[in-house]
Amino acid sequence: MPVSVTLSTLKTNTMNAKREFVEHVRDIELASKIKCALMWVEEEWNEDIDKEMLLRVGHSVEDLSRFLDTLDFDYDNGFGSQELFGTIWYEDGTWSEREEYDGSEWWSWRKAPTLPLKIKAYKLNTAAKR
């Protein structure tokens, strides 16, 4: 008896972009401190942006809700090329960005490293000489 396989049955590594976004900002406890966000979708090996989602600086609660609604779609986050790209900026100066390795996709939270004392001292000494 032949087995019927469709493309939808092959895509087993799907993720909902909205759920992933909300869980990420909740996990790092910055959900209420989102400054802005820019995300986009590029289908496999296509360098053109297929869909862009934008949350502007100074957004309202309603703007955030509409932005999250635009993220309510599933994408393939398994093996293959990266499909979902983006950056979330937070009020405290940190940010999250989409990363990919060997076909897996995820959010990574980033903060600028602390400046070494010798760099701070150099800046202070340079300013004092002027």
Q: What is the topological layout?
A:
Elements: H1 7-10, E1 14-16, H2 17-27, E2 34-41, E3 51-55, H3 61-70, E4 74-76, E5 84-90, E6 95-101, E7 104-110, H4 117-129
Antiparallel strand pairs: 1-4, 2-3, 2-5, 5-6, 6-7
Please characterize this protein's 3D structure.
By secondary structure, this protein is of the alpha+beta class. It has one domain (7-129). 29% of the residues lie in helices and 31% in strands. The chain has helices at residues 7-10, 17-27, 61-70, 117-129; strands spanning 14-16, 34-41, 51-55, 74-76, 84-90, 95-101, 104-110. It has a 5-stranded antiparallel beta sheet, covered by helices on one side. The longest helix is centred in the last third of the chain and has 13 residues, at 117-129. The chain is globular, with a radius of gyration of 20 Å. Mean pLDDT is 82; it is low at 1-11.
